[in-house]
Amino acid sequence: MDTWLLNLNVDKCRSVSYGRRHEFSNTYTMSDNVIAKVDKVKDLGDTFDSRLKFDEHIDIKISKAYQMQGIIKRHFIYLTPDTFVVLYKSLVRSHLEYAVCV
Within this chain, do residues 28 and 64 fall inside the same structural domain, yes or no? Predict the structure, then answer.
């Protein structure tokens, strides 16, 4: 950071150790500040936990898709099937397909 004159907010930095065992006792520092150790981190809308299980990520995405489906039901009372398909593909399916490769 100092060599390349990069300004990073150390308070927003987190450290995650990935693996089956959580016996890692490494402490990382930046500019003499200790980086907080967490069990999960959210990056670009994806939730990564220390065991690389994506249960929480999947639950969040499904919940968001249900919210969008509820918005369609509440605000668009009289829908033709074609209109529903367009709304579903743009509002609901987009949440379900985001980061599906993960």
Answer: no
What gap in Å lies between CA 67 and CA 51, rounded to an integer? Answer: 28
Mean residue pLDDT of the chain comes to 87
Residue 89 lies in domain: 54-102
Query: What b/e sequence results for 83-92 when a residue is b if at least 16 CB atoms lie within 10 Å of its CB, and e otherwise?
Result: eeeebbeebb
22 and 58 fall within a common domain: no
Q: Could you tell me if residue 48 is inside a domain? A: no
Pairing type for strands 33-34 and 36-37 reads unpaired
Residue range 23-68, pLDDT digits in tens: 667 888 887 888 888 888 988 888 888 888 888 888 999 999 999 9
**Residue corresponding to tokens 């980061």:** 99
